[in-house]
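Hey, can you fold this?
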Amino acid sequence: MQYADDRTLRARLYRAYATRASELGKSDFDNSTLITKILRLRAEEAQLLGYANFAEVSLVPKMAESPPQVAAFLREIAAKARAFAERDIAELRAFARDELGLAQLESWDLTWASEKLKQARYAFSDEEVKHYLPEPQVLAGLFRIIETLFGVHLEPDAAPTWHPDVRFFRIMRNGALIGQFYLDLYAREEKNGGAWMDEAISRRRLAQADGIQTPVAYLNCNFSGPVGGKPACFTHDDVITLFHECGHGLHHLLSQVEELPVSGIHGVEWDAVELPSQFMENFCWEWGVLSAMTAHVDTRQPLPRALYDKMLAAKNFQSGMQALRQVELGLFDLRLHSELEPDGNVLELLAQVRREVAVVTPPDWARLPHSFSHIFAGGYAAGYYSYKWAEVLSADAFAAFEEGAVSSGSVLDPVIGEKFWREILAVGGSRPALDSFRAFRRREPSIDALLRHNGMISHHADIDTTRPTPA
């Protein structure tokens, strides 16, 4: 869909994909009756538990307080992003008409035409960037950020490992051990795909006289390893992934809670647990931070500023359309579980949501709900909004460091870092996440920082703001 120049092939693939598991395909695979059954059972569960709808049940262990609050949050993002989304689709249609010869841009053309436009505007390759991000430089930069922000020291440690490539580190503060972690960065045939942080040992107070059990974490990625005697080199996406998983690791390792059920990431609300991980990603887009951890694997030259500027522009490519797409999915999920009657028309509800927020509408025969496994089989029922919610929290938390940089000259501010540790990382699930966020920012969350990071607000629009905005 992204690279095939054959439009007929794209149309065929799109129709097959958009109608899968529906009444328009093989009857054995039709999810229509399952959707109705699942919604009916969820409504019954809510009634048995004394709630008005299943969305209220879903939000009990989450940070958001009510379905109307979530709906208001999604609609606020939609309102702020709409003008940018309309500009995005107008530019794409003009490019498709003038450069690609497509008088009518169809749904099966969108990804392909977007790739063509992106390449025309920001031509650079991941391989080009990758040469500037050798592993030793990246790890040194990551460790320097952690040490500067949180007043700790990271150093190699020794422990049995499951593969020669796996390394082990300890985290020290004022000469005392506070945590340890395994780092397993490279892909292997027998290794699970993806990237993840997991706990080996969690912090807690021991019944014996030994005092505190210090936490241990696994940090796992699937990056390409060293080749030809040279160090491994990472794509910028790899670096973002590494920082993301380290954010989860810090949440686990820097906990100061002594009760296991709420220590580290335990007990943290579903829609807040990604705050530290997405927070750490922001440093990968800061020129002063990123440039300091680059050195070309052959020449040792730092990343050129012009290449970084292309990367940043490409990051925000079609950000308005992307934001509205996430709002569309989140609002549909929320209304499905809070407003629609159990036997109501699911497709008509989706059409209503699209009329309200979308700038791109798929054909009438497209059957998104039939393959929306996140909400029907993946645990995200009335929780799909949490992707955007966590982005808002992490961007707003990072904005505190941007505000500090106005006077200090750097986002690596140890005073603000200490506060982030004390109010977010250290408390784990021992108090509501919203209370932790308020303690850190001294106000309610605001969507402005996320919009600015996505190129939808001027750079200093939210610096030094104290205007509370309901999440």
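Oh, and this one too while you're at it.
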Amino acid sequence: MYIVALTGGIGSGKSEAAKLFAELGVPVADTDVIAHELTAAGSPMLSKIAHIFGAEVLNADGSLNRARLRAHILDNPSERLKLEHLLHPAIYDRAIQLLKNNDSTLQPPYQILVIPLLFENNRYDNIVNKILVIDCDEHLQISRAMTRSKLSEQEVKAIMSAQTTRKVRLNGADEVIENNGSLSELTEKVNKLHNKLIKTCIVSK
């Protein structure tokens, strides 16, 4: 398997970039999507979360109140570590399963693995061949995240401060797509990198 880890800060455009790769026929495994699946109402993982953090992180229908849990862990770094220790191994196992399934059934030249917290979590170091960072100006990050996720500016800045810095991401990147412009510009950049990756994978085989 040739795995390209796609990462970037909140509001950088990771999801849009991943969608564009998927439209090109590239298999995409997204650790955020996996996390949502693992914490769906009635799941064993959600029961563990409620046991550790209290029933108040659940909605009346038994689903996870993500906003409440997010606010709790942002205010308490030690609590964030508890959540990460619980979720990250399960997310990793599911991601590996998806990647292997894609490889055996689709045999693609490469796959995209979306990992927002790639640099905060070295669990994936042994499976990633290339790191792609989606980057944009921080003021644009904030405005996009506020619009997309209905968060306040203060909430977005708190999330950004809990993530690794933009400088660390850029220094650790093998490829960078700057996403300060339009969707058509992002599409063009993704298409260009896709063609480059196809050639790289053909040579590596």
